[in-house]
Amino acid sequence: MWCAGGFACCALVLAASPATADICKYIDRDGNLHYTNVAPETGWKKLSCGVGGSGSSGERAAKTPTPAGFPKVDASTQKSRDDLRRKVLTEELSTEEKLLAEARVAYANGAPAPLPEEKGAPQKYADRIAKLRQTLSLHEKNVDALKRELAATK
Fold it and tell me: Measured in whole angstroms, how far is the alpha carbon of residue 120 from the centre of its chain?
């Protein structure tokens, strides 16, 4: 999964279209991936950050003009980059949707069957439910972020 995520990040950086905020990819202490434009909790490690910023692309262009002699990308190259970005985002979305479905099954509406080692230890059961709820929320947020990113593609 890291390879696909790394590839996705490279594609996003190379072919990123204007956005209103940076969407960054983080990993938390438990190894869960997060896509967010909001400052994360402490202890999260930033894996990558897409290109974005405040304001529209026209505002950014007015503030930072393109230097003379700056290399330009022809339309067909940009189209292929955009297509690759869309493909990578679609694959990431598909993976996150599968993980979300698995998380929903495991969470079982907040009442999964207790594991044998949890029958005598209610705190272990409560801890597992909390972790399942957190995992479910994480995948829901990732799916939403990827859908927003796909909607913003050209």
Answer: 38
Q: Which of 16, 13, 54 is nearest to 150 (CA)?
A: 16
Model confidence pLDDT, tens digit, residues 67-92: 888 888 899 999 999 999 999 999 99
Structural element, H or E, at residue 107: helix 75-107
Split into its structural domains, the chain has a count of 1
Contact, 84 vs 11, CB < 8 A? yes
Q: Are strands 24-27 and 33-36 parallel, antiparallel or unpaired?
A: antiparallel
b/e per residue 29-55 (b: at least 16 CB within 10 A): eeebbbbbeeeeeeebeebbebebeee
The pTM assigned to this predicted structure is 0.54
Domain extent for 75: 2-151
